[in-house]
Amino acid sequence: MASKRKNLSFAEKNELIERFQNSNLSKAAFAKANSIPRTTFNNILAAKLCSSNAQICDQERKRQRLSPYENVDKALLSWIKYARSQNAPISWNVLKEKSLEFANELGE
Protein backbone atom coordinates (compact mmCIF):
# COMPACT_ATOMS: atom_id res chain seq x y z
CA MET A 1 0.00 0.00 0.00
CA ALA A 2 1.26 3.47 -0.81
CA SER A 3 2.19 5.81 2.00
CA LYS A 4 -0.23 8.59 2.88
CA ARG A 5 2.58 11.07 3.36
CA LYS A 6 5.01 12.30 0.76
CA ASN A 7 8.10 14.10 1.96
CA LEU A 8 9.11 16.84 -0.45
CA SER A 9 12.75 17.82 -0.89
CA PHE A 10 13.83 21.46 -0.73
CA ALA A 11 14.14 21.52 -4.52
CA GLU A 12 10.53 20.36 -4.90
CA LYS A 13 9.33 22.88 -2.32
CA ASN A 14 11.18 25.72 -4.03
CA GLU A 15 9.72 24.67 -7.38
CA LEU A 16 6.21 24.74 -5.87
CA ILE A 17 6.82 28.22 -4.44
CA GLU A 18 8.06 29.54 -7.79
CA ARG A 19 5.12 28.02 -9.69
CA PHE A 20 2.68 29.48 -7.17
CA GLN A 21 4.21 32.94 -7.45
CA ASN A 22 3.89 32.78 -11.26
CA SER A 23 0.28 31.58 -11.15
CA ASN A 24 -2.84 33.56 -10.38
CA LEU A 25 -4.51 30.82 -8.32
CA SER A 26 -5.45 31.01 -4.67
CA LYS A 27 -3.46 28.96 -2.18
CA ALA A 28 -6.27 26.43 -1.79
CA ALA A 29 -6.79 26.03 -5.54
CA PHE A 30 -3.05 25.68 -6.20
CA ALA A 31 -2.68 23.09 -3.43
CA LYS A 32 -5.62 21.09 -4.78
CA ALA A 33 -4.27 21.26 -8.34
CA ASN A 34 -0.93 19.86 -7.13
CA SER A 35 -2.49 17.18 -4.87
CA ILE A 36 -1.01 18.69 -1.71
CA PRO A 37 -2.98 19.34 1.48
CA ARG A 38 -3.76 23.03 1.89
CA THR A 39 -2.17 23.26 5.34
CA THR A 40 1.02 21.62 4.08
CA PHE A 41 1.24 24.14 1.26
CA ASN A 42 0.63 27.01 3.69
CA ASN A 43 3.46 25.70 5.89
CA ILE A 44 5.79 25.49 2.88
CA LEU A 45 4.99 29.09 1.94
CA ALA A 46 5.38 30.31 5.52
CA ALA A 47 8.76 28.65 6.02
CA LYS A 48 10.39 29.24 2.62
CA LEU A 49 13.11 27.05 4.07
CA CYS A 50 15.87 27.25 1.57
CA SER A 51 14.87 29.78 -1.07
CA SER A 52 16.90 32.65 0.39
CA ASN A 53 20.11 30.68 0.89
CA ALA A 54 19.82 28.04 -1.84
CA GLN A 55 23.55 28.03 -2.57
CA ILE A 56 24.41 26.68 0.90
CA CYS A 57 21.46 24.33 1.19
CA ASP A 58 21.44 20.72 0.03
CA GLN A 59 18.42 20.62 -2.28
CA GLU A 60 17.86 16.89 -1.74
CA ARG A 61 17.28 17.27 2.00
CA LYS A 62 13.79 16.80 3.32
CA ARG A 63 14.12 18.71 6.62
CA GLN A 64 16.16 21.57 7.99
CA ARG A 65 17.40 20.90 11.51
CA LEU A 66 18.78 23.91 13.31
CA SER A 67 21.24 23.58 16.16
CA PRO A 68 20.37 25.12 19.52
CA TYR A 69 24.10 25.79 20.05
CA GLU A 70 25.01 27.70 16.90
CA ASN A 71 27.97 29.55 18.47
CA VAL A 72 29.49 26.31 19.73
CA ASP A 73 29.08 24.75 16.28
CA LYS A 74 30.81 27.69 14.58
CA ALA A 75 33.69 27.62 17.06
CA LEU A 76 34.05 23.85 16.69
CA LEU A 77 34.02 24.10 12.89
CA SER A 78 36.77 26.73 12.88
CA TRP A 79 38.81 24.57 15.29
CA ILE A 80 38.34 21.52 13.03
CA LYS A 81 39.56 23.50 10.01
CA TYR A 82 42.61 24.62 11.99
CA ALA A 83 43.33 21.08 13.26
CA ARG A 84 43.06 19.65 9.76
CA SER A 85 45.48 22.27 8.43
CA GLN A 86 47.94 21.12 11.11
CA ASN A 87 47.35 17.43 10.18
CA ALA A 88 46.26 16.71 13.76
CA PRO A 89 44.23 13.55 14.36
CA ILE A 90 40.58 14.26 15.14
CA SER A 91 38.59 11.58 16.93
CA TRP A 92 35.11 11.50 18.39
CA ASN A 93 36.46 11.92 21.92
CA VAL A 94 38.53 14.96 20.94
CA LEU A 95 35.50 16.55 19.25
CA LYS A 96 33.38 15.90 22.32
CA GLU A 97 35.98 17.43 24.66
CA LYS A 98 36.45 20.48 22.43
CA SER A 99 32.71 21.05 22.08
CA LEU A 100 32.27 20.90 25.87
CA GLU A 101 35.22 23.27 26.27
CA PHE A 102 33.73 25.76 23.78
CA ALA A 103 30.31 25.47 25.43
CA ASN A 104 31.81 26.31 28.84
CA GLU A 105 33.78 29.25 27.40
CA LEU A 106 30.73 30.63 25.58
CA GLY A 107 28.41 30.02 28.53
CA GLU A 108 26.02 27.69 26.75
TrEMBL record:
Question: What Gene3D superfamilies does the record point to?
Answer: Homeodomain-like
Keyword vocabulary terms for this entry: DNA-binding, Nucleus
PROSITE patterns for this protein: HTH_CENPB (PS51253)
Q: Residue span of the signal peptide, if any?
A: none
Q: Which GO terms describe its molecular function?
A: DNA binding
The protein's matches in Pfam families, at most eight in alphabetical order, are given as: CENP-B_N, HTH_Tnp_Tc5
The keyword Nucleus belongs to this UniProt entry's keyword annotation: yes
Keyword Aminoacyl-tRNA synthetase belongs to the record: no
The UniProt entry, under InterPro entries, shows: Homeodomain-like_sf (IPR009057), HTH_CenpB_DNA-bd_dom (IPR006600), HTH_Psq (IPR007889)
A GO cellular component annotation here is: nucleus
What is its subcellular localisation?
Answer: Nucleus
Major place of residence: nucleus
Positions of the HTH CENPB-type domain: 60-108
Q: What is the designated name of this protein?
A: HTH CENPB-type domain-containing protein
Source organism: Araneus ventricosus
